[in-house]
Amino acid sequence: MTWESARSLLRFPGRAMAASNRRGPRPLDDADERPPAASLCIASGKGGTGKSVVSASLGRRFSEAGRTLILDADMGIGNAHIMHGLSPDRSFVELVRGEIGIREALASCGGDLDLIAAGSGVSRMAGLTPPEMGLIAKGLVELEHEYDQVIVDSAAGISDQTLHLAAACDEVLVVTTPDLTAMTDAYAFLKVLWRARPDIAPRLVVNRADDMEHARGVAQRMDGVCRKFLGRTPRWTGWIPDDRAVPECVNARSPVVSRHPESPAGRALSALADVMLGELRRARPGGLGRTLSRHIGPLAASS
After folding, report:
1. Most exposed residue of 26, 129, 243, 261, measured as fewest CB within 10 angstroms of its CB?
2. What is the pTM assigned to this prediction?
3. Which domains can be identified in the chain, with CATH numbers?
């Protein structure tokens, strides 16, 4: 079974189916007794699938149910802050340089939603060393009992850095579009994710679909190829329609669920948030910072 065979099945569904503003966390008296925040990685195989649009709306909806933190993990070229109208002057860049602690990197998005920006225009952030990743993990350990949910807005692709963060999360949601390249890269991401974390059951959402049947067809193609070549499948969790409200919200620097909650995309994102929040509430969180430390510990020791 070759990569080209998998790509062919994605391209021809018949074959696939035949084969089948800065602030710190509020002090909490019982912080040490609270479980760590449940974590969700929102990922994609390629850029341009709308991952940050999904992250922004899920973060806003999650914050209505408890304290939520968004981590922009697209290190050095992040844009998650744009969706919340922020222009943070501190980010993971300053944290990794040792110039600030993690609390100084927190920016408030209003309400019970905070964000740590990835920084922009710093290319070396895309290839952090294990000790530098260790600084991030240590900072997250400091925060993880003070939030209810953490969303990791992941970088696209399958770099070690991206995989370490995804594998450290309790849940993973993969965003694809109907484009062949997006589906092919989503398959590649799932393949390496399962190799790194065999026990995880990632979910799949189809973005920019024309209608339910269009989205279902994409999900079935992904299901068929993953089943054939990987022996397992992601769980299809829903779809988001191609909606002109989305680019309007991006240009307005606002989550879709805040600016246009009754738009087709706004309703779909709210429904997706409800599903994923339910999953996080059923999770047994291991603590994103602690789990990430375990993933990179041997690498840091050998650096």
Report:
1. 26
2. 0.89
3. 3-22+34-302 (3.40.50.300)
